[in-house]
User: Which sequence fits this backbone?
């Protein structure tokens, strides 16, 4: 059983990293109290192999519970399980900028001093950093570069060389430059014009249900799936190692996200190694989806 502890400095990218681990098939839990780790690992071990890859995010958000992390890790060693620690960090100036951009308060900044909180956190995590199996400095990494680093380090070496990336995007932000296949779903009914759905995204079940309820959506997906099923074996025979399918709507937040998720689910059921990336889902400024 693969067991990864994801930890590190606040603002260093743990949220993005755990999303990538989910894409890689890991069972992920964010902010689990360390004292519960041994019992949690035992429960996973009793799943008859259904849960064999685990990634837990453990950090200072746990407050005083965080102090029990070393005893928890020693406990799982005693019951026969091994683990690795992934530690994320970044420079002080980068972390300060990220907190200011998101307008979030640092967990250790009781008076709102971001830099003081960062320095205190570094001190608390010093010993854990020293035990880390892998340390990633995200200061100069883009989100996409960080995702690739995680996939390279923790993706399965299962002999399956052919991988597929499904990317949702907004045409107003430009077509992804590395796309091998581009699908335009701007003709589908637009949730943006439904007041209760406008501020949600395609990850919201209500938006997904709205997009999928129309017969034209189902008809479109059936034809797309038929095309993909025909193309992929031929691409594999050609010797390709990777295929990027880009699915776009106007803003990249509603229709394209839903269709990308449906396409990713279809390809997973077919046994392909899949990564789904919603490039423009966080855009809140544009007029139409």
Assistant:
């Amino acid at each position: 059983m693969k067991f990864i502890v994801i930890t590190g400095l606040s603002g260093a990218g743990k949220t993005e990293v755990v999303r990538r681990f989910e894409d890689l098939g890991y069972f992920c839990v964010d902010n689990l109290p360390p004292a519960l780790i041994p019992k949690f690992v035992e429960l996973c071990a009793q799943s008859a192999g259904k849960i064999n890859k685990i990634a837990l995010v453990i950090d200072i958000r746990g407050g005083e519970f965080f102090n029990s992390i070393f005893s928890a890790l020693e406990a799982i060693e005693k019951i026969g399980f091994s683990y690795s620690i992934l530690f994320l960090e970044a420079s002080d100036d980068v972390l300060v900028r990220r907190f200011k951009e998101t307008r979030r308060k640092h967990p250790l900044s009781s008076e709102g001093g971001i830099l003081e909180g960062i320095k205190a956190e570094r001190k608390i995590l010093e010993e854990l950093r020293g035990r880390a199996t892998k340390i990633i400095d995200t200061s100069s990494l883009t989100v996409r570069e960080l995702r690739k680093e995680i996939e390279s380090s923790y993706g399965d070496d299962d002999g399956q060389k052919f991988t597929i990336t499904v990317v949702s995007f907004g045409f107003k932000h430009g077509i992804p430059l590395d796309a091998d296949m581009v699908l335009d779903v701007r003709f589908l009914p637009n949730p943006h014009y439904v007041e209760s759905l406008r501020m949600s995204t395609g990850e919201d079940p209500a938006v997904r249900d709205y997009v999928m309820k129309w017969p034209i959506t189902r008809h479109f997906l059936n034809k797309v799936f038929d095309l993909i099923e025909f193309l992929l074996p031929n691409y594999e025979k050609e010797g390709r190692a990777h295929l990027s399918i880009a699915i776009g709507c106007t803003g990249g937040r509603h229709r394209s996200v839903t269709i990308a998720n449906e396409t990713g689910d279809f390809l997973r059921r077919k046994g392909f190694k899949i990564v789904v990336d919603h490039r423009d889902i966080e855009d809140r400024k544009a007029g139409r989806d």
